[in-house]
From TrEMBL:
Keywords: Acetylation, Fatty acid metabolism, Isomerase, Lipid metabolism, Mitochondrion, Transit peptide. It comes from Triparma strigata. One of its GO terms (cellular component) is mitochondrial matrix. Its main location: mitochondrion. Homotrimer. Key enzyme of fatty acid beta-oxidation. Able to isomerize both 3-cis (3Z) and 3-trans (3E) double bonds into the 2-trans (2E) form in a range of enoyl-CoA species, with a preference for (3Z)-enoyl-CoAs over (3E)-enoyl-CoAs. The catalytic efficiency of this enzyme is not affected by the fatty acyl chain length. The keyword Transcription does not apply. Belongs to the enoyl-CoA hydratase/isomerase family. PROSITE patterns: ENOYL_COA_HYDRATASE (PS00166). One of its GO terms (biological process) is fatty acid beta-oxidation. GO terms for molecular function: delta(3)-delta(2)-enoyl-CoA isomerase activity. This is Enoyl-CoA delta isomerase 1, mitochondrial.
Length: 276
C-alpha cells in the first residue's frame, strides 16, 4: 500500500502516514524540482536497520519522480543532524541482525552517494560518525555557524575503526593528511574548522534551511546529463570498490564487532552516553 503512493502524496499526508506506519523520515517539496528528506527518529536520529532502510527507500522513491532534480537531507531535531550508527545495533547483536544492519548501511551509502539527484546536506546540528558519512555522501554541505556543533569521524574514540570506504570518502573530501589526522584522533570539527578543511562548503549565520533550498534550486538549473556524468566520473571508482567488496566488508565488520574486546568497549561507551 505504502509503496504505491507517489512521493508527492507521501508528502501531502505525513500525519496520516506517521499514525499508520512509522516512516522515521518526513518528505516535503518546497518547490517543483526540490525534495526535502527530514530525518525524524528521536532522540538523536541514530541509524538503526529500520532507519537506514527507510532513508534508502525514500531516496529511491524521490529519485523515481523525473521532475525532482535536487534532494535536501536534513533533520527534524534542530540540535542534532544524526548521531551516526545506532550503537545499540552493535551491542550483543545476533550475527544475522548485525550483517543485515551493515548491509543496510552499505546500501544507504551507495544509494545516496550515487543518486542522479543533486544532494544538499543541511546540517543544523551535531553530525558525528555516521552522521558525517551521510553529509559527506551529499554533493554540497551547508552547516549552521554554531561553534558548539561538531562534525567528523570519531570512531577511534569508540575503540573501532571506520571501514575502508568511509576512510576513502573522508580522504576524497578533505585530503589524505587531514583525513589521517582526523581519523586517528577521532576529531569532531567545529563548523569554522570544517569549512577550512572542506568538510563543509558553507556555514550560515541565519536560517540554514533557506540557504539549502537556494542551493538546491541552483543545482536544479544545471542540465541533468552533465551532473550525472560528472558524478559518475568523480564517484564511480569508490562505488565500484565497495560494490566489489560487499561480502568481504560485511565479514570484517561482523567479525570486528562480535569480538569480546569490541563488545566491552561498546558497552562502556553506551554507559557513558546514558550517564551524561
Ligand atoms: C571493514 C570494516 C572493519 C571494521 C569495521 C568496524 C567497525 C566499523 C564501525 C562503523 C562505523 C561506525 C560509525 C558510527 O556512526 S558509530 C556511532 C558514533 N556516534 C557517536 O559517538 C555519537 C554519540 N552521541 C553523542 O555524542 C550525543 O548523543 C550527541 C552529541 C549526538 C547528542 O547529545 P545530547 O546531549 O543531545 O543527547 P544524549 O543525552 O547524549 O543522547 C540522548 C539519548 O540518545 C542515546 N544515543 C546517543 N547517540 C546514540 C547512538 N549513536 N546510538 C544509540 N543511542 C544513542 C543516548 O544514549 C541517550 O539515551 P538515553 O540515555 O536517553 O537512553
Amino acid at each position: 500500500m505504502l509503496s504505491r503512493l507517489s512521493p508527492r502524496l507521501l508528502s501531502s499526508s505525513p500525519r496520516l502516514l506517521s499514525s499508520s506506519i512509522r516512516t522515521l523520515v518526513n518528505v516535503t517539496y518546497p518547490s517543483p524540482s526540490v525534495a526535502v528528506l527530514e530525518l525524524d527518529r528521536p532522540p538523536v536520529n541514530s541509524l538503526s536497520l529500520e532507519m537506514a532502510t527507510s532513508i534508502t527507500s525514500h531516496i529511491k522513491q524521490i529519485e523515481s519522480d523525473p521532475q525532482i532534480r535536487s534532494l535536501i537531507l536534513t533533520s527534524s531535531n534542530p540540535k542534532i543532524f544524526s548521531a551516526g550508527l545506532d550503537i545499540t545495533e552493535m551491542s550483543r547483536p545476533s550475527k544475522t541482525r548485525l550483517s543485515t544492519f551493515w548491509r543496510s548501511i552499505q546500501s544507504l551509502f551507495l544509494t545516496l552517494y550515487s543518486t542522479r539527484l543533486s544532494t544538499i546536506s543541511c546540517i543544523t546540528g551535531h553530525s558525528p560518525a555516521g552522521g558525517c558519512l551521510l553529509s559527506m555522501s551529499c554533493d554540497y554541505r551547508v552547516m549552521s555557524r554554531n561553534p558548539k556543533l561538531g562534525i567528523g569521524l570519531n570512531e577511534t574514540r569508540l575503540g573501532i575503526a571506520a571501514p575502508f570506504w568511509l576512510k576513502d570518502l573522508f580522504v576524497k573530501t578533505v585530503g589524505y593528511r587531514e583525513a589521517e589526522l582526523g581519523l586517528s584522533r577521532g576529531k569532531l570539527y567545529s563548523p569554522e574548522e570544517a569549512l577550512k578543511i572542506g568538510l563543509v562548503d558553507e556555514i550560515v549565520d541565519g536560517e540554514v534551511y533557506d540557504v539549502a533550498v537556494e542551493r538546491a534550486e541552483e543545482y536544479a538549473e544545471i542540465p541533468e546529463k552533465g551532473i550525472v556524468a560528472t558524478k559518475r566520473m568523480c564517484r564511480g571508482e569508490l562505488v565500484r570498490d565497495l560494490e566489489g567488496k560487499i561480502e568481504e566488508d560485511v565479514g570484517w565488520f561482523t567479525d570486528f564487532i562480535l569480538e569480546e574486546g569490541t563488545q566491552k568497549g561498546i558497552e562502556g561507551y553506551l554507559k557513558s552516553l546514558s550517564k551524561k
